[in-house]
Amino acid sequence: MDLVQLTRDLEDLRAEALGQVAVAPDSAALEELEIEVLGKKGRLTGVLRGIGALAAEDRPRVGAVANTVRQTIEAALRERGAALRNSELEARLRLERVDVTTPGRPVRRGSLHPSIEAMGDIARIFAQFGFVVHESPEVEDDRTNFQMLNIPPDHPARDLWDTLYVDVPGHLLRTHTSPGQIRVMQAMRPPIRALLPGRCFRYEAVDASHGFEFFQVEGLMVDEGTTLGDLKGLLDQFAHAMFGARKRTRFRPGYYPFTEPSVAFDVECLVCGGSGCPACGRSGWMTILGAGMVHPVVLQYGGLDPERYQGFAFGMGPERISMLKHGITDLRLFMENDLRFLEQFR
Ligand code: DAH
After folding, report:
1. Given the CA of residue 178, which atom of ligand 1 is nearest to it?
2. Do 81 and 170 sit in the same domain of this protein?
3. With a threshold of 0.85, does the pTM exceed it?
């Protein structure tokens, strides 16, 4: 190995490396190339291994050549590297560009379930008369659901409420919201103006007008000197706010064990306006709730003296109210939760 040969090898290496740098396709290939040529075990080191065989005075000269070769290759790597990184960045920016003119993804708007919507409407109307919403349990005891509402264990009136029992003795799923009357009376002193919305359950064959699960809204007012006339005036206001200011209403005699007297409250048929049609059974009227003056026995169970206090109560089905308002003919729609039905209430 002599000086001339080694110098030529170095120059060959430079020429070859510069050629490879010029055609490196991307920065990863360029990095590999750098290691292969200039790395610790690279080709340049390989060539310089021959330096040991040279005369001592030749070594620095080869060293000087080797340095310029290395610097030239390094400069080429830097330059090509910068160019490659630039075009790679541009390619990425092109590829990952965000089109700010693309329309946004639509946000799906939900809506209140029609039963909930109806209960909200009812609560807002009665709130204007000072009625406050209370809650009462869905799993109730027999005493509160029946006995304290003046329905003794073997009384035939129990037939009005086909009951779902739970396997805790003496307990059941409330068949109506009326037991909430007892709980409110036991919890507070008159004047009482309470509204009790909630879910009710009955052992019922399901059809277009019967469900085993449905909502009710109960109302209770107790004070000194409360009269049936107060009840009638309040329900008129309610019917007018709910169905329209000019709708006619009427009281009919009814029967409930926990009220005396008891009434059914009708509003003129919303379909025919009172002349009689299939929707109202040709009567011209639609029944929207049951009501009456709270029975003295019920007041007593509530811990109130019936000689001093009088009260009225009413109970209605928000689904029925919603059906009348929207012309819905099948109660089952309220529990099926089919979006094609629910989405119509937005
Ligand atoms: N609880 C009765 C039912 O489920 C509805 C009802 C009627 C409630 C008359 C009352 C009332 O408060 O006075 O059929």
Report:
1. 1
2. no
3. no
Q: What is the pLDDT of residues 27-82, one digit of tens each?
A: 999 999 999 999 999 998 988 888 888 888 888 888 888 899 999 999 999 999 99
Torsional sign, CA 110, 113, 119, 121: positive
Handedness of CA 57, 60, 66, 68 (dihedral sign): negative
- In a domain, residue 107? The reply is no
State what percent of residues in the chain have pLDDT above 70: 100
| 16 falls within a domain | yes
Domain count, the chain: 2
DSSP-based three-state secondary structure for 289: strand
Structure tokens at 335: 């529990």
Is residue 100 a part of any domain in this protein? no
Atom 13 in ligand 1: residue holding the nearest Cα: 291
**51 lies in the same domain as 156:** no
Give the atom of ligand 1 at the shortest distance from the alpha carbon of 220.
12
Ligand 1 lining (C-beta closer than 6 Å): 176, 178, 218, 256, 259, 290-292, 313-315
* CA 211–ligand 1 middle distance (angstroms): 17
